[in-house]
C-alpha cells in the first residue's frame, strides 16, 4: 500500500503576521504562545509534531483539504484520557478517504498522534478531532463540558442532498452544517434538523435523530442521506430501533425525540420549532441508561 509521505511544512516558506521582534517581545512579556480555535485553547499535532507556535504554518497552501474541502475528519470524545470508539471512527475516516480517492493515513501514525496530543494535556472530558486531507494529518484536542440532557431543535432552512457523492462521509466540506448550526443558535436552539431533498426526516447538522412513534423507537435509514453516526450505530446495536424513512413532519407526531452524536451521546429534545415536548421521555431515559452502562464496559466497542 502506498502512503503519502508525511513531511512537516517547510519553515523556510513561512509567511507570518508577526515579525521576529514582535515574537521576542511577546515571549519576554510572558504572553503564552498557544494555539486557539474558536476562542478555546487547543493542543494541536500536525504531521508528526505537536504545534507549539500558533503562528507557524501548519498546512501547505496547496493542500486540497484547505483549497477545495477535499478531506475527511472525525470528532471523538475522550474520557479520562481515552478516546471513545477510536477504531470505529478511524474506519469511517478511512472509508471517507477512499470515497474522495485519497489513501488512508497510516493507522499507527494516527494512533501515535492521538496519544501525543492527549499526553500533552489531560482533562476529564475532551473533544478530539482528527483531520486528514491526503497531505495533512492534523489532530487537535480541547476540553469541553457535557451537553445538557435535553435541548431544543429547529428545522433547518436548507436540505441534505441524499444524492450527493459526499453522502455518508464526514467531509471537511462542512460549511453547510455550520450554517444550519448558526441558524439553530439564532433561534435559541441547540441543533438544526434537516430534511432531505425528498422532504424526509434526515438528521441534525451534527447529530443523528431518533424518535418514538406508536411505542417504537425509529430512526431514518442511511438512504435518507444521514451520516452513519458511530453513536447511531451503537444505539442500534445496544438498544435497537427500526430504520425507516418518513416525512419531516413525523417529528410533530412523535412522543419522544432524541439526538445522538459522539459529543452529545443521547440528548433528549424538549422543543421542536418552539413546540414543547416532554423530555427526556421514558424511552430516551432507558436508551441513555443502557448507553452509560455499555460505555463503561468498553471504551473501544
Ligand atoms: C452531520 C452529522 N450527522 C451525524 C453525526 C453523528 O455522528 P457520530 O455519532 O459519529 O458523532 C455527526 C457528527 O458530527 C454529523 O456531523
From TrEMBL:
One of its GO terms (cellular component) is cytosol. Belongs to the class-IV pyridoxal-phosphate-dependent aminotransferase family. The keyword Lyase applies. SUPFAM superfamilies: D-aminoacid aminotransferase-like PLP-dependent enzymes. It comes from Nocardioides cavernaquae. InterPro entries: Aminotrans_IV, Aminotrans_IV_CS, Aminotransferase-like, BCAT-like_C, BCAT-like_N, Class-IV_PLP-Dep_Aminotrnsfr. This is 4-amino-4-deoxychorismate lyase. One of its GO terms (molecular function) is lyase activity.
Amino acid at each position: 500500500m502506498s502512503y503519502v509521505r508525511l513531511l512537516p511544512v517547510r519553515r523556510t516558506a513561512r509567511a507570518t503576521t508577526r515579525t521576529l521582534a514582535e515574537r521576542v517581545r511577546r515571549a519576554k512579556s510572558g504572553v503564552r504562545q498557544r494555539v486557539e480555535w474558536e476562542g478555546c485553547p487547543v493542543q494541536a499535532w500536525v504531521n508528526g509534531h505537536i504545534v507549539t507556535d500558533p503562528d507557524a504554518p501548519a498546512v501547505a497552501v496547496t493542500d486540497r483539504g484547505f483549497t477545495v474541502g477535499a478531506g475527511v475528519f472525525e470528532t471523538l470524545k475522550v474520557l479520562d484520557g481515552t478516546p471513545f470508539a477510536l477504531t470505529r471512527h478511524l474506519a469511517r475516516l478511512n472509508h471517507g478517504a477512499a470515497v474522495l480517492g485519497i489513501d488512508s493515513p497510516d493507522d499507527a501514525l494516527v494512533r501515535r498522534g492521538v496519544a501525543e496530543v492527549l499526553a500533552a494535556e489531560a482533562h476529564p472530558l475532551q473533544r478530539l478531532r482528527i483531520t486528514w486531507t491526503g497531505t495533512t494529518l492534523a489532530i487537535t484536542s480541547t476540553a469541553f463540558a457535557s451537553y445538557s440532557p435535553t435541548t431544543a431543535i429547529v428545522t433547518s432552512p436548507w436540505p441534505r442532498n441524499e444524492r450527493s457523492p459526499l453522502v455518508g462521509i464526514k467531509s471537511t466540506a462542512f460549511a453547510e452544517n455550520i450554517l444550519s448550526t448558526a441558524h439553530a443558535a439564532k433561534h435559541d436552539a441547540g441543533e438544526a434538523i434537516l430534511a432531505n431533498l425528498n422532504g424526509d426526516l434526515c438528521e441534525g447538522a451534527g447529530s443523528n435523530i431518533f424518535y418514538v412513534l406508536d411505542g417504537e423507537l425509529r430512526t431514518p435509514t442511511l438512504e435518507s442521506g444521514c451520516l452513519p453516526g458511530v453513536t447511531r450505530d451503537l444505539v442500534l446495536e445496544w438498544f435497537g430501533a427500526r430504520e425507516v424513512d418518513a416525512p419531516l413532519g413525523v417529528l410533530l407526531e412523535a412522543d419522544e425525540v432524541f439526538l445522538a452524536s459522539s459529543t452529545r451521546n443521547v440528548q433528549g429534545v424538549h422543543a421542536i420549532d418552539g413546540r414543547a415536548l416532554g423530555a427526556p421521555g421514558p424511552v430516551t431515559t432507558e436508551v441513555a441508561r443502557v448507553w452509560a452502562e455499555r460505555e463503561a464496559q468498553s471504551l473501544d466497542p
